[in-house]
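User: Some background: our group keeps a shared notebook of sequences we're curious about, and every so often someone picks one and asks for a predicted structure to add to the entry. Today it's my turn. The entry only has the sequence so far, pasted here. Could you supply the structure so I can complete it?
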Amino acid sequence: MTDKEPERYYDWMLWKNRQEEAKRQEIEEQKYFDKKWEEHQRMLELHSKIAKIYESPDGGKTVYERDFGQDPSERRLIAEDFKLGPSDYFDSGIDYKYNEARLIDEFKKYVDSTYGEHYSKEKFQATEFIMDGGHGTGFCIGNVLKYAQRYGKKGTRADARKDLMKVLHYALLQLYVHDSEDKK
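Assistant: Of course. Here's the predicted structure to add to the notebook entry:
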């Protein structure tokens, strides 16, 4: 395509249309690139406001925080002897009103501790035989009722709290039984 204006009318019309189309295309491309540049700028601005980078040069003993795009030498120490609890791995962003995250961590520790107690000294727990025998629901729901009814009637407040942990544990085991029955 030449920029020289043709002499014949028909050729001139074709040339004029090509010129106008090229101009429209250039304008559309410029709008597209301007829009993409604005999106890129907004993203960088947003990242600089909210995005954080966390670093731990010693395998988790100390944790540093810095803003996205910030010089690494300007990082801030946020934790020493940093330890994550189980609920820290699935941060829901919810500000729990009743300490649910802490209680879930405590419940997990309780369940973990049952695997080291006399209930599992051998390779199998008695609960496994009961569930394998098809009596899981009766066993679990029976224990939920037993410990729920016993709550606050035996021993100290600490004993009552242990009964609540047992209610939760047997209810969790029943969820396993329930889901297992759905697979059959």
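Suggested note for the entry: The chain has a mean pLDDT of 82. The chain is about 60% helix and 10% strand.
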